[in-house]
Amino acid sequence: MNFLKWFSIKGNKSTKQEKDPELDQTLDSLLEQMKMSKDFIYFVHGKGAQNIHCYYFKTLVDSKIVHRDILPYLNDESITTLEKIKASLPIEKIEITKDLKKIENKILTGSVLIKLNEKSKEAVLITAELKQAREVSIPEVEFSVVGPKEAFVESLDTNINLVRKRLPIPELRLDEFQVGKLSKTKVAVISIEGLTNKENLNTVIQRIKDIEIDTINDSSYITQLISDNRNSPFPQLIDTERPDRLASVLTEGKVGIIVNGAPHAIIAPTTLVEFFSAFEDYFLNWITASFFRLIRLFAVMFSILVTPLYVAVLTYHYELIPKDLLGILVTSRREIPLPPILEAIFLELAIELLREAGARLPTKVGQTIGIVGGIVIGTASVEAGLTSNVLLIIVALAALASFTTPVYKMGNTIRLIRFPFLFMGHLWGLLGVAVCFCFVLGHLLRLTSLGRPFLEPLYPPRIQDLKDAFIRLPLSFQSKRPVELQTEDTMRFNPKKAKDKKEIDE
């Protein structure tokens, strides 16, 4: 038994000794694999015994930094160790490491690797990233006449700078992660320490850590992967391209998510009412802002219900139509061979086709297609007897009303759910529209955003949060943060001081 045990131990030692050469070659194997790419640069800097081996991707590294801040300082003959290289270079981010994973990640994100010995496992990593990003421009989706004109871009550092510029406080907390096995996309979670509810923050962080996917190309991927109900047509997180809006909601206690390569940030948690609140509302007088907000809510209900109600009434409920209006409808439909449902579907699909074509074509061509196509198709369909002029006006107004939604993704949802209402109105009339409305309402009651009720402040009822829901009361009345966020610091400011207006002679 002792002989067998000794033989087993000796065999394990010999196996370990056989693996050591393979471990010594791991870094060399990685570099040899990278050399297969045509944009990978390798050269030896120096003469005689002082040879310095340099490795980097020319498409990821700024050549100006290499030739100005790295190579000239390597000519010093006193440089004999990696520590001296680190001390001599005028670059802040320099690291000496043996970690293979770190070396691989740094080279692939724009660092220069330097070794004093070609076979050495230890190397210096010098950050010389080539930053290619467009300049900060004006918002295109959430454009406002009044207010700041800055929008997020595809650079994570630039976007964080835009937020920190508006919140210059040490409590602003930033957690950064890498998501995607292949893309290794940087994702930053922003919150305010001592204010943001830790349960909300931990939920966001945990869901991002649990993501298993190969690539992340946009923040919309994160939105779909961390939402409470991924099968709901209603978005449960808000996308925004405005840094001022993100900074504002952070002070309310919400959590922000910024993805490298995405010009939109994510706001969580959120409620249904916030999707119909434009950030420009806070730049206007509270009476004007409340009026516009009520118009948007009315436009949404009008866009969803007006066409289904038209189909339901003309199919089953003629008695509900006033006599004067009934004559007009009969005249407009006198020569139309199609039933109301087919007539409505034809026009609804035509509107959606024009909208999709206008969105996919270049800007100038898309505008021409939308205007000319709408006029030509609408006029031709009425003259050909395929649709009535009354329904054409109704569908056009419904489409126009759907575009009043400030958040683009919610506008898509509104245009989508019109079709179930349309079919239910055709099958069961007004009863079908009511049944469909109950289904949608039941779905919204069950929907949550990071575990928070999606219909708050309606359900559960929160009187305090109604100050900034359907209407926006003056800012001096909004001294407390939203109840649904359960922030650690509930007070925004002292309401008594906000209402006091002293004259200059007092």
From TrEMBL:
Keyword field: Membrane, Transmembrane, Transmembrane helix
Subcellular location: Cell membrane; Membrane
Transmembrane regions: 294-316, 390-408, 420-445
Pfam families reported for this sequence: GerA
Top-rank lineage group of the source organism: Bacteria
Similarity section: Belongs to the GerABKA family.
The protein's name: Spore germination protein
